[in-house]
């Protein structure tokens, strides 16, 4: 797996925390790219962070990446976790 992040991107922190929780650090290549670099070939605008899976599929939503890492860690998500992920996406990132 390869995680693409950019300095100052608001989604970096929750994604890196979720990766650490999943213990994915050893199996994860973290690449820092410029904020205008288009990592996902089929998106028209740059979007970061992005997780490229070993199957060459992309996850480019902060919440989706976090949920994927939670799944890898075996941590069952509850309503509170989903509520905070949704808040982070709709409120926090919109105000940055």
UniProtKB/TrEMBL annotation:
It holds the Pfam family GST_N_5. Residues 1-74 form the Methionine--tRNA ligase N-terminal domain. Gene3D superfamilies: 1.20.1050.10, Glutaredoxin (3.40.30.10). It comes from the Eukaryota. This is Methionyl-tRNA synthetase 1. The gene is MARS1.
């Amino acid at each position: 797996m390869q995680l693409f992040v950019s300095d100052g991107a608001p989604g970096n922190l929750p994604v890196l925390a979720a990766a650490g929780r999943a213990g994915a650090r050893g199996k994860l290549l973290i690449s820092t790219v410029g904020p205008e670099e288009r990592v996902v070939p089929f998106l028209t605008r740059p979007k970061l962070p992005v997780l490229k899976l070993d199957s060459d599929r992309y996850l480019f939503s902060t919440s989706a990446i976090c949920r994927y890492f939670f799944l890898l860690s075996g941590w069952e998500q509850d309503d509170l976790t989903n509520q905070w992920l949704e808040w982070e996406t709709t409120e926090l990132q919109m105000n940055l």
